[in-house]
Amino acid sequence: AYTTPQRIAHFRNNFRARLMAEAAGWRADEQIFMTCEQLVDVRTSSGIERLAELLKPIGHEIRILLYLRRQDQLLPSLYVQRVRGGLTTPFPDFVAAAGDMLTRYETRKGACSEPLEFRHGSIIDDAMALLGLDDLAGLAIPDDQNIGLSARWTEFLRLLNPHVPRWLGGEVNMARRAMVQAIEALSSGDKLRLSGAEARCVVESFAEG
User: What's residue 3's pLDDT?
Assistant: First the structure.
């Protein structure tokens, strides 16, 4: 739902009050695990500091786990997400215009972006380790969610998008939503990836000069 700067700002402005109200009922010995993508801008160290300051009034020990998505993997994921939302732009044109979508992070202290960098093997294991839960044998871990469309079905949906609008009369087109869900259920095969040359271009754009 937080797809515009205005909606993101509204969310952030109202979050503190709601968080403090809920935290007032937490016990001192409780361990609370929260996740959020839009709470702060994590591209700079000041963003992480603002997150710590936001959580500080809770009065509990605060630990922050930051996960950064590899940019060459982010672009195909963003493209699939936007095709699901109605985008009709071909993938090569999307990649060619993607400079503003790439994010240069000021710091990576305490962050990891490669599976091999996970201290305990996965992001779930690392997050649970922060809570002191090292033995996850009894933890029911759900199947992967929001896996994404395959390259073939992404292109199929892109070609359909001009003919099946996302909005009708200012309302969400529920028939289109059902169609996208059906396509997601059918989707199989290789995921969309950058070509070798495109991936190198992305990596080189982040090379330290």
Answer: 61
First to last CA, the chain: 38
How buried is 33 (Cβ within 10 angstroms: 0-12 exposed, 13-18 middle, 19+ buried)? exposed
φ, ψ of residue 193 in degrees (nearest 5): -140, 155
Please state, in angstroms and rounded to a whole number, the distance separating the CA atoms of residues 184 and 153: 8
* Residues 61-93 pLDDT 10s: 787 877 777 777 888 988 999 999 899 999 999
Q: Which amino acid is at 182?
A: A
User: Rounded to an integer, what distance in angstroms lies between the CA atom of residue 177 and that of residue 29?
Assistant: 43
Query: Comparing 28-32, 49-53, 120-124, which segment has the lowest mean pLDDT?
Result: 120-124
Closest by CA position to 162, among listed 83, 81, 91, 96: 83
Give 202-209's long-range contacts (Cβ < 8 A, gap of 24+). 202/71, 202/72, 202/75, 202/102, 203/72, 205/99, 205/102, 206/71, 206/102, 206/104
Asked whether the whole model's pTM tops 0.85, one would answer: no
Q: Which of helix, strand or coil describes residue 200? A: helix
Task: Summarize pLDDT for 88-119 with one digit per residue, the tens.
Answer: 999 999 988 876 666 655 544 444 445 546 66
Both tokens assigned to 72: 């060459």
C-alpha–C-alpha distance, residues 62 and 97, integer Å: 39
